[in-house]
Amino acid sequence: MAKSKKSGKKPKTAKPSVKEEKLPKETEKVEKKDEKEVKAEKVEKTEKVVKTEKSEKPAQIPAQSAKKNTFCGKFWAKKYEENESILTIFKDHKIYGNILGEVFGTMFIALIIFTLGLSQPLYMFFILLGVVIAVYKLSGAQLNPINTVGMMVTRRMSAIRGVLYLLAQVVGAWLGYVIVKAFISTSAGVTGTESEFPSMAVIQEGYYWVVAFLEFLGAAIVGFFYARAQQYKKSVVAFATVVAGGMTIAVVVVYLLSYAYFGLSGNFMLNPAISLMYGIMPSAADGVMELLGGIAQALFCYVLFPVIGGVIGFWLSDTSNILAEEK
Q: What is the pLDDT of residue 45?
């Protein structure tokens, strides 16, 4: 019996050691709880920061969106996505195709105008329709400084791209001029009779502002229709029809007004790039100042006024479009 008592007392001496082993586990649990609490506090802090930032942002975003939704915000909004500059635009090889499209398209139109003139508006409609369809996928078929400057001013195109398009249009008009001049000189050598290159009729005294207004009015019609055609860019045929139709209407209106009321003909062109090749610049005068004055008058009448008219046509289109969208 004494042995059994001794054997029963031995487990009691082992109990303190068991308690000592359990204490570190409890401390570990406490430390883990502390770490979880710290993490929970950090999460709460970050959530509070995010909530405060979100509560501050809505006060700024509606203000910006409200400005964009106003009439002036929509009118002057940037309508192109590319951040183009002179350092980046030439890195994309597409720009070279765009420039060639404007060169060839303007050249084809110049060839027709230098041979037929603007006295055949029906021919002009179908010719312009075909040219626009042909080069639309290359450059957008602006083919006229009136349209290009309007695109730049209304922020549909970057300034550097617009300048390149203007240079391409002048080069295209010059190529058309060179080709027609070559045929004229060749025909003179073969037939013995030299044909004269077509030139703009001299503005009669007292009719300068009439011609300038007609250029302005025709350019406004051209710009308005080209701006409206931007709504039909998904359909090339619809786009080309609107552009060609606008040019035809402008030619008919200007021709009827100039001939019916003032007896003028051959005094307008509605394309500054082609006008520069069409003999608008005086080549002779009694003095240098008179020559410079004649050049300035020609540039104002056939370049500046059409460009301003085209910009106003774009603005009228944008204004009507914004007013039509407003509820």
A: 67
Output the pLDDT for position 74.
76
Q: For tokens 């179908």, name the residue.
A: 126
What tokens were used for 189?
């050598």
pLDDT the model gives residue 205: 81
Task: Return the CATH fold of 77-325.
Answer: Glycerol uptake facilitator protein (1.20.1080)
User: What is the b/e burial string over 10-30, where b = at least 16 CB atoms within 10 angstroms of the residue's CB?
Assistant: eeeeeeeeeeeeeeeeeeeee
Radius of gyration of the chain from Cα atoms?
A: 38
CA 174 → CA 106, 139, 140, distances in Å? 9, 19, 21
Neighbours of 5 (CB within 10 A): 8
Type and span of the H or E element at 63: helix 2-69
pTM for this model (two decimals): 0.76
| Residues of the chain below pLDDT 50 | 1-8, 13-14, 17-23, 57-59, 61
What are the CA-CA distances from residue 307 to residues 32, 151, 179, 204 (Å)? Answer: 77, 11, 27, 23
Which CA distances in Å does 113 have to 121, 173, 189, 223, 275?
11, 10, 24, 19, 10
132 touches 244 (CB < 8 A): yes
- Residue 39: the pLDDT is 67
